[in-house]
Amino acid sequence: MQGTSYCKYGFDVEKSTGFLASFAMQLKKECSVRSACAYFEIHKKHKTGVAKLDTNDRSKIPITLIQDIYESWIGSVTHGMSNIPADLVFLVIDPFIGEGSTVSNSTPQTFIPSI
Ligand SMILES: [Zn+2]
Questions:
Q1: Where are the chain's structural domains?
Q2: What is the pTM of this model?
Q3: How many angstroms does the Cα of residue 77 sit away from the middle of ligand 1?
Q4: Among 13, 21, 44, 64, which one has the highest count of C-beta atoms within 10 angstroms of its own C-beta?
Q5: What whole-number distance in Å separates Cα of residue 13 and Cα of residue 47?
């Protein structure tokens, strides 16, 4: 499992989260005093906490984090780090595992990879 913080990806909240993957991910380190996000560097605190977010906002994932996961996956596949034949390789990102899905009225962000 690799941890990161949403604030490192531009969110106002410092939400530390762990991700499981079958490949090595190159994610930004969790926010800390030694490795603070840009907002924390300036204000010495975060703008808001996870507990203050509504359910919809609590479930959002920064699109740049999804990009990092995707690019890590592409790197593992294209650099031969995967033992799985290329025609059987696919990427599934399940942000709701263990949490359950939520209904959202907001417009979902779309990430269209360029290969
Ligand atoms: Zn932070």
A1: 2-88
A2: 0.73
A3: 31
A4: 13
A5: 6
